Amino acid sequence: MNDILSNEEIDALLQMFRSEGGAAEEDPLAGKPAVAPLLAVEDRVVSPVDLLKPNRLGREQLRGLERYFESAGKLLSATISDKLRLDTRCDCVAVEQLRFGNWLEQLPGPVSIYVLQMEPFRLPVLFTASTSLLYGAVDRILGGSGKVTKVPKDFTAAEHTVAEALVGPCLDRICESLGDVVKLKWTLQNRFCNPSMAQILPSQDVALAVYFQATGEFLLGDLRLMIPFASLEPLLDRFGRDTVASLEPGALRDRVAATVRDVGVDLAVELGGARIRLRQLLDLQPGDVIPLATRLGAPAVVPVQGRPKFTGHVGRIGNRLGLQVADVIADQA
Length: 333
Fold this sequence. Notes:
- The longest helix is centred in the N-terminal third of the chain and has 26 residues, at 59-84.
- The protein has nine helices and eleven strands.
- The strands form three sheets. A six-stranded antiparallel β-sheet has the order 3-7-8-5-4-6. Strands 9-10-11 form a three-stranded antiparallel β-sheet, with no helix packed on it. It has a two-stranded antiparallel ribbon with strand order 1-2.
- Helix 2 (59-84) packs across helix 5 (157-177) and helix 4 (131-141) packs across helix 5.
- The protein folds into three domains: 7-45, no CATH class; 59-239, 3-Layer(aba) Sandwich (Chemotaxis protein chec), CATH 3.40.1550; 298-333, no CATH class.
- It is 30% helix and 25% strand.
- The protein is of the alpha+beta class.
């Protein structure tokens, strides 16, 4: 698959050629490093430019993806805690674009690698888990404490099967978090612990890399997801769309009202107030009278969640005290 230069990369090439005073005589990418050398032209220094730096995703698109995977991290926290019966937190710590070869080089070892087919993505997806995290999870699922001192470099078929009791639900949660954009259905194609077997894409292909870090009482490790850019490209406009900002003012009023309608709030009635010294408060006895700074018959103030909201008149309803609302207090800035 041939690389396609972005507009920024093309501009960098043209600027470099103009600085040298002529056109290039050979392909600058053939047999040369990806970083252009420093050139002093007319007392001006040309900064190094990484001609292979991937920038296929725009800032808004990348931020949109981050929001979805941050939501996935919260779902993973609940799933891992439930499966391992252990309070565990899983955070999405990074969402970035990089070359597939660079992604492979950054894989921590030892690691368990899963090759997935996520329909409708047309290219395979990789999901990895630190073997330290996964081996502790296997021990926990089998009834152990989850505390492991020695982690094997490879898993047996039986250990892989037990580990999938955790890996499978984690993948379900990731697919669920992207459900508003695309309905994903994953199937396992292969699994191994040797990163050299994970060369499923050309090294120069751009991929989206997602990093989750799981931490618990004694469990620590990361989960990583690699999605080829070619699979994401048809969906990018959906990730970059801010659905809330595009709505008309007040469009969510009914939905918000329905959501908060049953939320409990504290309501009280203040008959009056007084300011006394601490020594007077300590000397109070049953039967003592405290004068209030309120006229007899004046409306009582009704605070809601601690802020004055209504005024009203206190009375009786049968054998119970009641309040008749007289006025609504305007909000104060």
